[in-house]
Amino acid sequence: MASLSTLGARIYRGETAYDFVGRRKFWYAVSILLVIVSLTGLGVRGLFLGVEFQGGAVFTVPASAELSTDDGRRIAEEASGNDARVQELGSGALRVQVTGLDTDESDTVRAAIADEVGLQPTEIDAELVGPSWGQQMTTKAFQGMIVFLVLVTIYLAFAFEWRMSLAALVAMAFDLLVTVGVYALVGFEVTPGSVVGLLTILGYSLYDTVVVFDKVQEKTRIVLKQSRYTYGELANQGINSVVVRSINTSVTALLPVAGLLFIGTGLLAGGMLKDIALPLFVGLAAGTFSSIFIATPLVVDFRLRDPEIAAHNRRILDKRAERGTPAPSPAAHGRIEDDGSGEAGDAADADGTGPVGTAAVPAPGNGGDNDGSGETGDYVTVQRRQPVSRARGRGRPSGKRR
Length: 402
Known about the structure:
The chain has helices at 4-13, 24-44, 51-54, 69-80, 103-117, 131-159, 162-186, 192-220, 231-266, 272-303, 307-323; strands spanning 48-49, 56-61, 84-88, 94-99, 125-129, 189-190, 356-362, 379-385. By secondary structure, the chain is α+β, with helices and mostly antiparallel strands.
């Protein structure tokens, strides 16, 4: 089996293709499993909302106090009666956060910490956030997300079609659920920085999905003008045309975000870097997955409910069954030529010319089909056109003697 790098290069050059649409039921199962794990994490552990969302107090103990995180948590919880979060800052100081405190309770906790470390209460910095301000932050965050989703739905419905708009919303919902589930499982605090990260990954997920949809729409535009390929086969060609680009873009974006997450958390003790980097890291990975394995396969399922598309697919499958021929599998970057005769040509190069070569693509014969029925096959070798070299013969001696 070729390495991943070699396989990626072959897919990029159009020498091979992966049946994303045919194996969509498997990827649906993987997606549902991830959603179940995320919902379980939310139900069992829940989200720890910061003081910005539910009010409370934040105490900063100087590094000179030499207070451990366990002692700081114990003192704050005993003095307040509420759960406390303690975080060591990069300077060696401790950040003690206790939610649901008013002014008097905040002074009590501050005095208890100062008494434990032998400092004056005024030497411990304290910030008090009222619950009304936190409620306002939560409301504004939800309003911003709803407005974003409405605008995205309208844009996709006009730019593409309503089926793609609905599939993109499902993909973004998947990204949100997985990211929030990871937050619950890891136990990170939800802060305004986390909300910024969530909104950012929604935009990136939309960008990645639109890139894939644009190529799928280009491939499937002539689906009813030809009688060689089903809608699912053409959509699968579209995904293969951009999958390498999508993965490369995501990996390039994940590397600096991973640096922010692991360096910010491990060396700089978190803070705003961690709050933004974690949702970005998880969301970028989930967005790439959903744009490839969820969005377009859902569009195919929606389109198969269209009577016109369903009848077109049946005619193609019946014709193949009568002839006893397997479904053609053009290379990933091939172009379907429409000559107006109702028949589509083989996969062609960029200008539709050139000699025919070979390319390995998924075969529908061994337990698979490329018509969007949910099954796939092995790789086979099929014909593919290669561009003619216009420089052939140039610079060669003519054979004339002087």
